[in-house]
Design a protein that fits this description.
Layout lengths: L1 E2 L10 E9 L4 E2 L3 E3 L4 E10 L3 E15 L6 E15 L1 H10 L13 E2 L4 E2 L2 H11 L37 H7 L6 H5 L1
Parallel strand pairs: 7-8
Antiparallel strand pairs: 1-9, 2-5, 3-4, 4-6, 5-6, 6-7
């Protein structure tokens, strides 16, 4: 929560906010995210405008996840731009009622609203950070991953192979395997 009381609803007034906060829970995806409680650096500017308070600036942190190819840990710096308008409650209400003249505006649900003098930036922060995270994080661009047959790390054994026999040829292969010789063949 950011306190906007010092802006005093005077359009044109500004306030710079630089602080370190703890990351909220679930700030990421299934494969990568900013761990809950880790440090997030906020470097924001709050500007009073006619409709509310415009919050803009950067949010920086460190995302931790796993490589989608080899499952090793991946750590990536994250720096995102945040620009969001937090409407004064009466302006948000007027926007909801105004819309197209027949009820609620289509954009009313996209408007963040100040709670008194407080701006809850967590939803806007979540939207900005999660969309900036890599969809498929890798430990390095040329990561060979894991063997699909046995799970061996291909980076540790680049020459790793398996002799694979096409299942359509398995009956023919058994004819040449001496351990599969039947009793009838031995008696003849």
């Amino acid at each position: 929560m950011l306190d906007t009381h010092e802006l005093g609803r005077r359009p044109g007034s500004m306030l710079d906010v630089r602080r370190t906060v703890s990351a909220p829970a679930d700030l990421g995806t299934a494969v990568i995210g900013i761990p809950e409680g880790s440090e997030l650096e906020l470097d924001l500017s709050l500007s009073a405008v006619m409709e509310g308070v415009l919050v803009s600036g950067t949010v920086s942190g460190r995302a931790v996840g796993e490589c989608v190819r080899c499952l090793d840990e991946v750590t990536e710096p994250v720096r995102v731009q945040l620009t969001e308008l937090f409407a004064y409650p009466e302006r948000a209400q007027a926007g909801r009622e105004g819309g197209d003249g027949h009820g609620e505006s289509e954009d009313a649900e996209d408007v963040y609203e100040l709670d008194g003098d407080l701006a809850d930036i967590e939803p806007a922060l979540r939207d900005s950070v999660v969309t900036a995270l890599p969809f498929s994080p890798v430990c390095r661009p040329d990561c060979p991953g894991l063997c699909s047959e046995c799970g061996a790390r291909l980076a540790e054994d680049p020459g790793h192979t398996h002799e694979l026999v096409d299942p359509r040829w398995s009956a023919l292969e058994s004819m040449f395997d001496t351990s599969n010789v039947s009793d009838e063949t031995k008696e003849s």
